[in-house]
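Exam review. A common question shows you a sequence with its structure tokens and asks you to describe the fold in words. Practice with the pair below. Do the first one on your own.
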Amino acid sequence: MRKVALALMLSLLFLMGCNTIPLPLGVVLATPSNGDTVNPQYTVLTWVSVGNNTYEVQVSPDANFQNLVINATNVTNLLYPLPPGTLNDGSTYFWRVRAFRGGQISQWTSASYFITSGSIPPTPLPVTPGSITVAALVDGSPWNGSVNYNISGPSSSPGNSVPYSFGNLTSGTYTMTYYSGGPYGASLSAISPGPTQVLNSGANTTFTFIFSSGSVSGGASIIATLNGAPWSGPVNYTLSQYTINGPVEKTGYSVPGTISGLLAGILESHHPPSRR
């Protein structure tokens, strides 16, 4: 009986020695090490594992892997080169790996992270809307009333009175165009500080219409030169001024000449092209 028991024990030990002990199913991350800086155009992930396994690799800019830039499956090697263009410069990425063998799946490795080289893009400054104020002066004194104009730029804003303020405007270059209106009998002399201005983010700028009263201020002398020397003869021309009642025109037919009865303000000269 003792011989039979001993034979059974030896047979059992022989059978146990012939069976292969299963290899553990798991992964250990190798490179890049936690916190390493890598070249974003050439980054290779490597890990250590044993057995005839396939692997799944995930890379994400966030630690909870909600936004994946890489989700590679059925990887058969112990390394995975990241395709060029996958990673941004100056950014942090997290990565992890798990193994598959037959119907078994390992746990995900603990996440490791690396940082890509390159400059980190600056945080854009917040854009704050600005405002434009439109005002008017007549003979140096503030004036309010009806004026037709338009402000053009990143946004277009027509207006029909002054003073007035336009808010919630995008920063950029704005140009003021005057159409008509202003103090009765007055003419527009200028737009101050200029018809075109730059509006900065969150700032205010002002366009001021400068009007001159309708009193007669004098006349204008019209002369001509030919090759730098004084010349006289027939020339048809017109001087124009813009007032609240529309354009006022004075016409002349020869030079030298004098146009009288003009208002203070800006004059525009027009003459037809010469005929040869």
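Now try the second one, then compare your answer with the model answer below.
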Amino acid sequence: MSVTPHKASAGSRITAVDTYDIRFPTSRELDGSDAMNPDPDYSAAYAVLRTDAGDGLEGHGFAFTIGRGNEIQVAALDALRPHLTGRRVDDMCADPGSVSRDLVGDSQLRWLGPEKGVMHMAIGAVVNATWDLAAKRDGKPLWRFLADAGPEWLVSQVDFRYIEDALAPDQALALLRRGRDGAARREAALREHGYPGYTTSPGWLGYSDDKLTRLAKEAVADGFTQIKLKVAPTSTTTSGACGRRGRPWAPTSGSTSTPTSGGAYARPWRGRALWPRSTRTGSRSPPAPTTSSATPRSAGRCTR
């Protein structure tokens, strides 16, 4: 696949990269709290790519932070502005990977560690904004844009330098080509049933047991069948809830332990049910959890 230039905006360029320091006082209610981050203020260094195309389309992306230092993340985005303004939009959208390669490989920015830390996050935000703009110009949601892309083009967008020992370009190409088989059937199922999701909203570590219970009931009423909880060795709330009496409202649940002193605490939780099985009659077992986490996870089943 090669992205077809947007007919209404051929020759258009990036004219502005607007940045915003957006913060939410989530620490007031301990929303988002876990063992490592007990009082986060969920925040975003937000970037908007604007063009002179006159079609009203913009590329949006952001880097997530948890409060203090968000202004540093915004400053990193601002430092990228000269590298983006004036670029041809058609070229960027036809090859979003080139934006990443150019910014990561800049001979001076790379001294700041563009492949780690604040600069890496800033580059990720503008690369995501580029993908967002490319999909909008093609008139598709991003998932559809990627699903329609050809395997060869998708492989060309990946920087394999740090993963080639585990996945080489030809292997990735073979995987993507095989994935074409049955794609229409899977899309039809996706459109009919949606994609299974879970919610973390009830399970933040700083919540009281009463709040956890109330929010979990609300989540189940809203149709969620999976809830993720935060646990920690010293917790008296969420982690304590894992061992208490059965919850008739509890769907399949998973937990993440944000390590504070290694993985020794998290490992014993793997595969353990977070609530005992309910004796409620007529109940059914929901599907096994499909959530994933970069931190150690435990997952169990119970009926509701």
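Model answer, second protein: Confidence is low (pLDDT under 50) at residues 237-246, 268-304. The CA atoms of residues 205 and 235 lie 7 Å apart. Full marks require stating both points clearly.
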